[in-house]
Amino acid sequence: MLECEGAEVVFTSGGTESDDFAVKGVAFANGLRGHIVASSFEHSAVLKSLDFLVNLGMTVTYVDPDADGIVSPDAMAHAMQDDTVLCICMLANNEIGTVQPVRDIVARAHTRNIPVFCDAVQGYGQIPVSVADLGVDLLSLSGHKLGAPRGIGILYVKRETNIVPLIDGGGQETGYRSGTENTAGIIGLAQAMSDSAEHRERNAARLRSLSEELFDRLCVLPHCVINGTREHGKRLPGNVNVSFPGLDAESVVLGLDRRGIAASAGAACMGGKIVRSRSLLAIGADDARASSSLRLTLGDESTAEQIRYIADSVAHVTADLYAMR
Ligand code: PLP
Question: Which residue's CA is the closest to the ligand 1 atom numbered 10?
Answer without folding.
Answer: 15
